[in-house]
Amino acid sequence: MKVKPPSSSVAATSFAARTAELYGRDLYWFILSRLRNDEDAKDVAQEVYLRLLRLGQGELVRQPHAYVYFVANQVIAQFRMRSNTSPVRFDSELVQHHDNHPIPADLQRDDVIDHLLPQSEIEWLVDSLPLTHRKVFLLRILNGLSWLQIAERLNLSINTVKKYLCEANARISVMDRKR
């Protein structure tokens, strides 16, 4: 009995092409969830596929799904290491915005934030924080309380207050970038 050879289109597809077909969308979302930046996620996904192209047909890969995500984790780790050592990041859209909307010279340093973000946007960002984070954030920013004073007033530890402030700042920063 003769066994039919695989068609040329099946034989010619590389491991990277099959991976893109099977896992492409999920792999992209996996990378995006770890990097939180669309352009960086696309760059890392492309690097993953380039590494998979080097495998050729990938005959030696026993668990393709696990291998693909293993490679993706390695590329993400290397990307983060490179970006941490990179001294400067240039955001051309931000520079263009500030070129078109310069900050008046008579504004004080504290007024710059008010100039950059309208009051309604600031309120929306603060209101979107979880309740305890919002309380800690507002006590620190509006009332100028120390970590110890906030901890005593809300019956929290100082480390929890520091953590909530850090998380609140991070959440506001991320939400502001998404807008």
Could you provide a short overview of the structure?
With 179 residues, this protein is an all-alpha fold. The chain has helices at 8-12, 15-35, 38-53, 64-85, 92-100, 111-116, 119-127, 131-141, 147-154, 158-178.
For the terminal residues, how far apart are their CA atoms? 65 Å
Tell me the fraction of residues in β-strands, as a range: under 5%
| Main beta-sheet strand count, sense and barrel state | none
Helix coverage percent: over 70%
Count of β-strands: 0
Shape: elongated
Domain tally = 2
The SSE string, one letter per element, is: HHHHHHHHHH
Just name the CATH architecture of the largest domain: Orthogonal Bundle
Low-confidence stretches: 1-11
Number of helices: 10
Structural class: mainly alpha
Average pLDDT over all residues:
75
CATH third-tier fold name of the largest domain: Rna Polymerase Sigma Factor, Chain: A
Overall CATH class of the largest domain: Mainly Alpha
Radius of gyration: 24 Å
Give an overview in words:
With 179 residues, this protein is mostly helical. The chain folds into two domains: 9-85, Orthogonal Bundle (Rna Polymerase Sigma Factor, Chain: A); 118-179, Arc Repressor Mutant, subunit A (Orthogonal Bundle), CATH 1.10.10. It has helices at 8-12, 15-35, 38-53, 64-85, 92-100, 111-116, 119-127, 131-141, 147-154, 158-178. Helix 8 packs across helix 10 and helix 9 crosses helix 10. Mean pLDDT is 75; it is low at 1-11.
